[in-house]
Amino acid sequence: xxxxxEAVGTIQGVKKISSYSREGSSLVLMxxxxxxxxxxxxxxxxxxxDQVKGFLPDDASxxxxxxxxxxxxxxxxxxxxxxxxxxxKLQEYAEDILKPRLERMEEVASVTIxxxxxxxxxxxxxxxxxxxxxxxxxxxxxxLAGENVNLPAGTLKEGTINFLxxxxxxxxxxxxxxxxxxxNIRGNIIYLGDIAKVEDTFRERTSITYVxxxxxxxxxxxxxxxxxxxxVARRVFKELxxxxxxLPGDISITPVFDSSDFIKKTIx
Length: 268
Hints:
One of its GO terms (cellular component) is plasma membrane. The chain is an alpha+beta fold. It has helices at about 1-10, 40-50, 85-105, 125-130, 135-145, 175-180, 190-195, 230-245, 260-265, and strands spanning about 15-20, 25-30, 75-80, 110-115, 120-125, 155, 160-165, 180-185, 190, 195-200, 210, 215, 215-225, 250-260.
C-alpha cells in the first residue's frame, strides 16, 4: 500500500492515513479535516490512484474508492436486557414504549431495534387439500389479499406451500385467520383453516444479541442532520431517565456506544 499512501497523502485536506493488510487484500483509510469538500477529494484520490496503478502487483485488482460519512452512523447504541423478561417481551417494551418516546424527540431522526423476536404468522397450505377442493394457490392468495393481508411469495416444500403473514391488520387471533373465506361455490364453503395449518411463530433469527451477558435488544439512534451530537445525546439520556420509570424494574438500558463521549474527550 506504500505507493497508494504516498500518492494520496499529497491531497489537500488529508488529516490522517492508516492502512491494514492481510493475505489477498489491503485497506487504506483516509481522514480529512473538517470542512473538506469530499466530492473534490474523491476525484483527486481517483486521479492519484490512476497515476500509481502501474506500481501495484500485476495480479492486483483496481482499487475501489468508497466515501464514508460518520454522520450516517448511529450516535447512540443502547443495550436493553432483563433478568426476568424474555426476548419477546423485551421487543414489545422496546417497540411500544422506548422507540415511540425517543422518536418523538425533534433531534432524533430514527430509532432502529435489533436482536429481538419478530412475530410472524406461518401458514402451511396442504397441496393435496388444494387439489381435492379444486383450488389453486393463486385463489388462496387472492382471498387473503381481499382481507388486506400482506404476504411474500410462497414456497413449495414436500407437498406443502409455506408462506408468512407479516402484516396482521385486523386479525387478533389465529382463529380469525383460519376463518378467512377462501371459496364459496354452490354452498361448498372452504375456509383457510380447512386447507392449511396456521401457526403463530417468530421470524428466523440470523444473529443473536447479548447485553451484559444475556440475550437482549440493541436500540440504535440517528440524529437529525445538522443537530449537535453532544447536545442530542445529553437530551436522549435525560429522556431515558423518564422512560425507565415507565418500564418494569428488571429491565436495564445500558449505553453500548456513545459517539458524544468520543467528541467530548477529543475537545478536552
